[in-house]
């Protein structure tokens, strides 16, 4: 095989591999030299023409295939977009990318004004371009409307085929638009809008580009028709749902009114379920009901799903004048009837005094819309009487339960080996299965009002099926893990001008070990509170190490020493100090592995390196194992004392 034949085989192989044009030209140049040397110049010219023809044909085929694939992908995107504004943005973005245009926008008819307005644009510089308007008789719109076919020009501002609109030409000049191509967005023979692509230089779109954009505009028309149909269907479904909800609400209100007397009787027979009763009262008239205590503070609130007023937000926040509430309660107590305290538009705020409770200021505040008829008012007043009776039953039952619960908790945590009867009674009281675990919690609170705090804590415990008692200066809570965490979340929401914190044990199944676990928690609590008042909850596993470390020394002094260890870092701006401490703790936890630290924090490795280098200068380094341990302990203690990563999200 001679040189020219070998080069011919090579260039055909390159064409097969879709080599670049420069690479093929290089081989052709080499073939020209070989042909000249072998005296086959004529043969080379024929071969050169064939090679270029084959190469160009393959490139054209590849380009056509890519254009077709892009059009198919674009059409798929349009077909799955049913929200109109999102569809407009997709049409513009895809049209621009199909032909590599500088700008693209979609214009549709505003039926109210009779003008065509741009509803989505991309690639513009001036804000005025995004809000361009035109009419039937001006600009490219007029030609496209007449022909229902595409329009293109390489010099829009000087094109004489249509009437120019000065405002539109001004926008084109500001945007420096030169070339423009427009396509009607058709569906079922109707023009739904126009798709425009433009460039800031004189550009002649190829026939392939025009064909692709024309096909795309047809698909866009179908997609817009489907989106409009979907919107109309959604609106119809929404309207049907609203009508259905209104009908259901009406039926429920009628049934609730008819069953009011039966509900009261059932409540009294069951011992008076206060929460369900008040919620039922609210639901009967679509109201918001607030239960005020004798200090005129909101003890509970019950808001019906049908309530649409605005007064409830005012009373929930506590931002209201208390004098009208006191006066209305006094009047209601004297007359035995409800009293309208305030009006807020079409909404009334009605007060009913409650009788027979401990204290003298308990009342219900009922916010409802519209006027109540005489039957509804009497139902509310009778409900208030039944509520007083139910409250007396609840107070008696809760007192008995509280006494029993206190005895059980004390016996369990103070007796080293509680008797089987006590353990069995606790399991029955908490509804525990044989394999279900429990947790202990030691809770401390700020002492602004111990009586009120105790009442709040016991109320939260009753709602979540938790045994609670006050031992010395800390509350001891016992219950299933899920219930205990629910209790802590409820306590956090109920605490208003005070905070609660403490220590949680690990889950355990053997109740006979409760005494030992209580002693461990109590010892740890004493150590932790010497370092700083606890205003959040920590797990026993988090504080055991520090409790054992500090129990024989001056915990406050040791904690202060650890704070001094971190002082060089804390002297940096707060945000930077927090980032540096978090990075160093993760680095030390991760056994000095920078990549693991970066992965854990979601940072780039270089960012971690930069932070560690800054820390090295700030702290003097941690190459010394003793220094590293000191920093590690100080950081861990900081997380513990400052409430980071608290168990169960109770912080």
Could you explain how this protein is built, in words?
By secondary structure, this protein is of the alpha+beta class. The protein has 5 domains: 3-68, no CATH class; 81-231, Beta-Lactamase, CATH 3.30.450.40; 261-393, Beta-Lactamase, CATH 3.30.450.240; 415-550, Ribosomal Protein S8, Chain: A, domain 1 (2-Layer Sandwich), CATH 3.30.1370.10; 555-649, no CATH class. The chain contains 22 helices and 16 strands. It has helices spanning 3-16, 21-38, 41-79, 84-99, 139-147, 166-175, 207-258, 260-269, 274-285, 311-317, 322-335, 374-414, 420-430, 450-464, 481-494, 514-531, 540-550, 555-570, 574-589, 594-601, 605-619, 625-642, and strands at residues 103-110, 115-122, 133-134, 151-153, 179-187, 190-199, 288-292, 298-303, 339-344, 347-353, 363-369, 438-445, 467-471, 474-480, 500-504, 537-539. The protein has a 6-stranded antiparallel sheet. A 5-stranded antiparallel sheet has the order 8-7-11-10-9, sandwiched between helices. Helix 2 runs antiparallel to helix 3 (41-79), helix 4 packs antiparallel against helix 7 (207-258) and helix 8 (260-269) runs parallel beside helix 12. The longest helix has 52 residues, at 207-258. The N and C termini lie far apart (84 Å). Mean pLDDT is 79; it is low at 645-651.
């Amino acid at each position: 095989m001679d040189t020219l034949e070998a080069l011919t085989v090579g260039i055909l192989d390159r064409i097969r591999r879709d080599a670049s044009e420069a690479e093929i030209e290089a081989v052709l140049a080499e073939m020209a030299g070989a042909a000249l040397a072998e005296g086959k110049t004529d043969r080379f010219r024929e071969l050169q023409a064939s090679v270029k023809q084959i190469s160009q044909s393959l490139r054209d085929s590849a380009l056509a295939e890519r254009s077709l694939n892009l059009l198919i992908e674009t059409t798929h995107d349009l077909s799955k977009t049913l929200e109109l504004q999102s569809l407009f943005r997709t049409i513009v973005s895809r049209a621009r990318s199909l032909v590599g245009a500088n700008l693209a926008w979609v214009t549709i008819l505003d039926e109210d004004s009779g003008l065509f307005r741009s509803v989505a644009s991309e690639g513009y510089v001036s804000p005025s371009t995004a809000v361009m308007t035109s009419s039937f008789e001006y600009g490219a719109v007029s030609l496209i409307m007449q022909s229902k076919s595409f329009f293109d020009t390489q010099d829009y501002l000087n094109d004489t085929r249509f009437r120019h609109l000065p405002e539109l030409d001004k926008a084109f000049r500001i945007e420096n638009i030169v070339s423009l191509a427009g396509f009607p967005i058709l569906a079922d023979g109707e023009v739904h809008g126009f798709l425009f692509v433009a460039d800031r230089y004189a550009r002649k779109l190829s026939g392939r580009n025009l064909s692709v954009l024309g096909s795309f505009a047809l698909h866009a028309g179908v997609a817009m028709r489907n989106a409009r149909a979907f919107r109309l269907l959604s609106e119809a479904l929404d309207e049907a749902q609203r009508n259905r909800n209104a009908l259901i609400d009406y039926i429920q209100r009628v049934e609730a009114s008819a069953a009011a007397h039966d509900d009261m009787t059932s409540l009294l027979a069951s011992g008076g379920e206060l929460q369900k009763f008040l919620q039922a009262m609210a639901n009967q008239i679509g109201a918001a009901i607030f239960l005020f205590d004798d200090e005129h503070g909101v003890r509970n609130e019950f808001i019906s799903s049908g309530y649409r007023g605005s007064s409830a937000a005012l009373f929930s926040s506590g931002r209201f004048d208390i004098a009208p509430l006191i006066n209305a309660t006094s009047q209601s107590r004297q007359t035995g009837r409800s009293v309208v305290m305030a009006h807020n538009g079409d909404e009334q705020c009605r007060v009913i005094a409650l009788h027979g409770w401990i204290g003298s200021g308990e009342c219900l505040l009922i916010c409802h819309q519209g006027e109540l008829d005489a039957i509804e008012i009497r139902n509310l007043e009778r409900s208030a009487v039944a509520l007083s009776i139910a409250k007396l039953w609840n107070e008696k039952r809760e007192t008995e339960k509280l006494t029993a619960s206190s005895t059980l908790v004390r016996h369990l945590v103070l007796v080293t080996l509680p008797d089987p009867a006590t353990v069995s009674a606790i399991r029955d009281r908490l509804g525990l299965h044989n394999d279900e675990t429990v947790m202990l919690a030691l809770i401390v609170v700020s002492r602004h009002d111990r009586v009120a705090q105790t009442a709040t804590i016991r109320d939260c415990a009753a709602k979540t099926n938790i045994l609670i008692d006050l031992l010395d200066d800390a509350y001891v809570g016992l219950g299933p893990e899920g219930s205990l965490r629910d209790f802590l979340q409820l306590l956090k929401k109920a605490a208003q001008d005070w905070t609660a914190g403490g220590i949680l044990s690990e889950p355990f199944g053997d109740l006979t070990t409760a005494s030992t676990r209580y002693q461990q928690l109590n010892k740890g609590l004493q150590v932790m509170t010497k370092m700083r008042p606890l205003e959040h909850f920590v797990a026993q596993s988090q504080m055991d190490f520090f409790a054992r470390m500090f129990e024989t020394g001056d915990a406050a002094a040791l904690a202060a020493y650890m704070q001094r260890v971190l002082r060089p870092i804390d002297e940096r701006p707060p945000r930077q100090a927090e980032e540096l401490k978090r990075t160093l703790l993760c680095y030390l936890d991760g056994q000095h592995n920078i990549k693991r630290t970066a992965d854990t924090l979601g940072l780039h490795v270089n960012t971690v390196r930069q932070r560690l280098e800054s820390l090295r200068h700030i702290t003097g380094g941690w190459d010394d194992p003793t220094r590293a341990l000191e920093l590690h302990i100080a950081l861990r203690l900081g997380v513990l004392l400052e409430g980071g990563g608290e168990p169960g999200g109770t912080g």
